[in-house]
Amino acid sequence: MKTPTAADLPFYFNYRSNPAIAAAEGRIPDQTTAQAQKHLHMIIAGNGSANYSWFIVPAGTETPVGTIAIWGFSADRTTAELAYGLLPKFQHHGYMHAALAQVTAFAFSRLQLTRLDCYTAASNTPSLNLLTSSGFTHRETITEDNLAGEPTTMVIYAQDRPL
């Protein structure tokens, strides 16, 4: 994994403009590099305070294939939300499982979070399987409007800090 930089814009535009990823994230795909650049700048500016974001880079390469982040901290900074995604052709190769293990360990040991939450679409079976196999448990099912304004059934999975 690596910390995002402005030089990662080509990857990030590819990621943010991908229709399958946008649908999974409940948002409209970015149409311009300026849109992706604005979001990338926001991530970089907040990294280490408002969020902790990384790009997933397979061993032996320098090209990112996905993202993973901790964000949405509670006011007392004891809980936060997890977000992640991979370009479709890199899904089902174990990259996210490895990244999730690293980020979960970071959340509990370095940030001292007591709980890490993850919202995912109820229909996203690969994500549900990833969370379950990584020690997350189902906490709640909700229906809310996604970023595209469409009602979506979401499930909240969570993992508590090990004792």
Automatic annotation (TrEMBL):
PROSITE patterns reported in the protein's UniProt record: GNAT
Secretion signal, residue range per the UniProt entry: none
GO molecular function, one term: acyltransferase activity, transferring groups other than amino-acyl groups
Residue ranges constituting the N-acetyltransferase domain according to the UniProt record: 1-162
InterPro entries according to UniProt: Acyl_CoA_acyltransferase, GNAT_dom, N-acetyltransferase
Protein name: N-acetyltransferase domain-containing protein
